[in-house]
Amino acid sequence: MKIAVENGFIEVLSLQFPGKKKMNTAELLNGMTFSKEAKAY
What we know:
Elements: E1 2-5, E2 8-11, E3 14-15, E4 23-24, H1 25-30
Antiparallel strand pairs: 1-2, 3-4
């Protein structure tokens, strides 16, 4: 997952929410539900 910043992008390779296991971005996105209004740019 890439997040736009002023001078380019930051690439997030993994995330860990408090009390949860560490996961890569694909695992995180596969487990999420998005609303019909959600947009990706």
